[in-house]
Amino acid sequence: MSSRDRILGRVQRALADVPQDDTPYEQAIPRDYLREHGARRVAETVDLLAENLADYRALVHRCAAGELPTVIAGLLADRKATSVLVPPGLDEDWLAATEVTRVADRPESTPQELDRVDSVVTACAVAVAETGTIVLDGGPDQGRRRVTLVPDHHICVVRVPDQVVSSVPQALERLDPTRALTWISGPSATSDIELDRVEGVHGPRTLEVVLVESGSGPDDPC
Amino acid sequence: MSGTYLGMPAFPVAAHEAVANETLRGNLRHATHTIRAKRAKAVAEVSDWAELREAGKRIKDHTLRHLDRYLEQLEASVTAAGGTVHWAADADEANRIVADLVKETGESEVVKVKSMATQEIGLNEALEAEGIHAYETDLAELIVQLGKDRPSHILVPAIHRNRGEIRDIFRSEMGEWGRPAPEGLTDTPAELAEAARLHLREKFLRAKVGISGANFMVAETGTLVVVESEGNGRMCLTLPETLISVVGIEKIVPTWRDLEVFLQTLPRSSTAERMNPYTSMWTGTTDGDGPQNFHLVLLDNGRTDTLADEVGRQALRCIRCSACLNVCPVYERAGGHAYGSVYPGPIGAILSPQLRGTQSAIDASLPYASSLCGACYEVCPVAIDIPEVLVHLRERVAEGGEVVREGNKVVLQPAKGHAAERAAMRAARWAFTHPGALRGGQRLASRTRRLHPRSLPGPGRAWSGTRDLPALPAEPFRDWWQRTHGSKGAAK
Ligand code: SF4
């Protein structure tokens, strides 16, 4: 007998007490928990995102769409970055104001090569205000999972308010489970040594999140 | 279930040793009290905690009641998404499957992200015997591995070590395994973390095989979820060409939507955060991104035996958050190692004896490593009634009876008059007579009672006379102890 059959057989015997007409899934789970916590206006939800991101030590910047290239250029310059990883589908305008060397993540690039790149700039799929989380789904403007993992400095652009949801339940609704997803809440951290929180172990030690207003303002060139 | 630490003394003996160790006790007290307070704050932030907890409990219960169906559905989803599913009835089979898969790649080293399941089956040792070296990459696991030590807490496995000890371990051991600790390494946590980053980075960047567990598996989509803080999980799940995940069969949830409950309750219960720094979700393989070979090893190893017990099966709801450890007055005094298993604390006291059976002295004594104060039940995000299961298991130890072992019904002999009973009674006495171990629990217990009026576990009657069980006393524990044991022949 295969182990598969053995295990499934054991499960069936173990569950001899469960009636044939046991309550079906749809009725077995009470869903009376909240879809989101508290009532907020859209702008307040974005403020909450900024607050919670900062609470977990992400560096938060806010700007209008037209200012984004300058902001990104400034962040790379402050960091003294000489190279930046660029996902294949990143909006070219975002890097229009910087001279930093662009590095593409080619399939044959090795992790060692990526390790020599200073920074990475990506978009995101969705951001969760209540938990201060950004979620990446590997879309063309975010790239392979490794590009946001190996470099030590990650700049992530969130279009607000479109990409912001209040809560975890709302985020899951927007996401596609068939894609590889990475939920990021602040830079990597450990509390393994006497429970002292230390930022940055293996992931990027600096996470900068730029909240860019997607509504077109008067001096918005787009 | 294998993995009983060799020569592990019964709980009370091990606990006595722990109590004598000042460093251990100090570290443990600091840790549990800190996390406990933070958790309470994180939980208070969500007004619907009770509803989330109930939903989590019901999702898990429903899944367990139909586990065969969901296992088959999961297998189909993972396979359709490009993964390969393997089934392992016990630890040896799981270890063999993993070792063979690693050998097929031609590699002799693997990187590992912390996983209780692989610790439970002793995977590292089994791989070592096959000439494959497994590197633990979680900072705490690295400390444990380099220190040739055992983990003492689910969440912070090296919590029994202080910073000075960690620095010494890094200085003397890192060079043996790869990049040595930097010159002049001090004992500040930031420097120690930096040393670990440098030491492990070279291993991550060259790793061809990664090994993980998973916090959740979604039957409907075939998605696996790993929740972590440091980024070592992302490294292991993303950079290697081959990923092997060893996961207990009870880790299933039926639907994608069900994650909305656990992604809210797990981080707050575990690290007391709104959300942990990194959560990875993957479904089979993704073209051009991450490992192109994905193997899922579904592990039984005593879980179906546990499932066969209608009272005890609720232990399989556990999402390994470790909240019950941090509130347990007995754990705080005795330390994680006293439990003789990778699962310490209250959850270990009900899980290990079910996964492994109650034949050994340590496993027979574990259900007694508790004062039944109920604090563990109060904080458990899936509402496992740990005191109820403890009482149930005590009855089994005392009275014997029918249980399922490795899929077969067996009749256990009562422990009366055997070594197991003596070990059990010593554990009970130890837990009952350490007033310091009880103080914290009492307040929580009375709070539990007010918030959750509940009927008391029934079959405690098995112990009669002076051995009568304190079936979650309404009166403070010490009053009960005084009354029944303190002054001889007092009100019974
Ligand atoms: S028993 Fe409950 S509280 Fe304890 S680790 Fe498991 S889920 Fe957490």
From TrEMBL, chain A:
Parts forming coiled coils: none
InterPro entries, sorted: FTHF_cligase-like_sf (IPR024185), LUD_dom (IPR003741), NagB/RpiA_transferase-like (IPR037171)
Cited Pfam families: LUD_dom
Domain LUD: start-end pairs: 94-212
Annotated signal sequence range: none
Name listed for the protein in its UniProt record: LUD domain-containing protein
Organism: Streptomyces brasiliensis
Lineage: Bacteria, Bacillati, Actinomycetota, Actinomycetes, Kitasatosporales
TrEMBL record, chain B:
Alphabetical list of SUPFAM superfamilies matching this protein: 4Fe-4S ferredoxins, NagB/RpiA/CoA transferase-like
Chain spans, region Disordered: 442-492
One Pfam match: LUD_dom
Keyword Iron-sulfur: yes
Entry keyword set: 4Fe-4S, Electron transport, Iron, Iron-sulfur, Metal-binding, Repeat, Transport
Domain LUD, residue spans: 71-298
GO biological process, one term: lactate metabolic process
UniProt keyword Isomerase, yes or no: no
InterPro entries: 4Fe4S_Fe-S-bd, 4Fe4S_Fe_S_CS, FTHF_cligase-like_sf, Helical_ferredxn, LUD_dom, LutB/LldF, LutB_C, NagB/RpiA_transferase-like
Domain spans labelled Lactate utilization protein B C-terminal: 393-483
GO MF term list: 4 iron, 4 sulfur cluster binding; metal ion binding
Location of the 4Fe-4S ferredoxin-type domain: 315-384
Name recorded for this polypeptide: Iron-sulfur cluster-binding protein
Organism in which the protein naturally occurs: Streptomyces brasiliensis
Organism lineage: Bacteria, Bacillati, Actinomycetota, Actinomycetes, Kitasatosporales
